[in-house]
User: What shape does this take?
Amino acid sequence: MKVLIFPTNTGQGHKCAALAVKEYLDTLGADTRIVDVLDIGRKKSGFFSGLYDGAVNHVPRFFGALYAFAEHISSAKRHSPIYMMNTFYTGAFKKMIEEERPDVIVCPHMFSAHSVTRLIEKHGLSIPSVGILTDYTCSPFWEEMRLDRSIVANQAVADECAAKGMDRSRLAPTGIPVSARFNRKIPKDEARAAFGIKKQTVFAVMGGSMGYGKIPELSAELVRRRPDAEVIAVCGNNAAVYEKTKSIEGVRALRFIDNVDALIDAADVFLTKPGGLSTTEAMTKRVPLVITMPIPGGEARNAEHIAGSGMAVSAGTVKDAADAACALLADPKARAAMIAAQEKHCSVTAAKDAGDLIMELAQSRKKQRGSSEK
Assistant: This one.
């Protein structure tokens, strides 16, 4: 079976979901390839990634206003300007699909989902297609998609998508796919040994790959509140945040790390921004979770849904985040209730379920091909 997955580099979540699905499909022997959809034909991924990072990091309120406007104009009944933008590279996209001849196309990003929808509507594309929504909301413009299946975080998100006009029969509420390593619980002593942690109490703070959020300020506040605790702050690729954080006494600052799964298991409370993937990774680990300072737009919607479901506490300020972390630390009943909510609303088999769905569609297409050739 040949599977093509088309994320793009506007935020790391879409790519992480793609890698999680590929990781599982590889165990089944599928021929799986990941291609940045904006690098087909002309290489534009870096340009758009830079625009995205600049907007969310430097003008978050403007980004939030754009998101709110997108929600206002998004509709299942008409195509948006964003959809039309994604038709510009349809020719190159079509050529690649014809050359590669996949059995299934997977779209963990709106851009590729738009382009595939265009191929379905205008060129009669018959290859099965699967979308993956990597947020805890029906993100703007997904209503326009005409894919065979759309994988969403849970049943509540599926209900929201259906209410906005998406075909309920094509929605698969199997969860946001994360790497299998987040399904394995590392013993706390072992996880702490990996980071050389000696103290009894551990807070872990993250801000995604680019170190968004007030990581230095939050880390300093946690140290001030609990000087007996180990505070580990992961600053990602943000050199300025790293330099500022490492100067804070009592805080251990780290750059980008590839063993976040171990850090989550080492922590008594995990604090992170509400990206769809970063929160899902933490909730899959079943850890007390504080969502910190969401970027206006999709992250704010994630925070509303996740906190509203009891899977985390959402905090809009440094003070509120530190309050929430310390309160969770002191309240075993609250921690237990949070873990129970994560078990109810966040699947640990999402990558497997997504991969099985993809393979089912691929096998169905092969059977159809075989029948047509007889």
Remarks:
- Residues 134 and 276 are 5 Å apart (CA to CA).
- Confidence is low (pLDDT under 50) at residues 45-52.
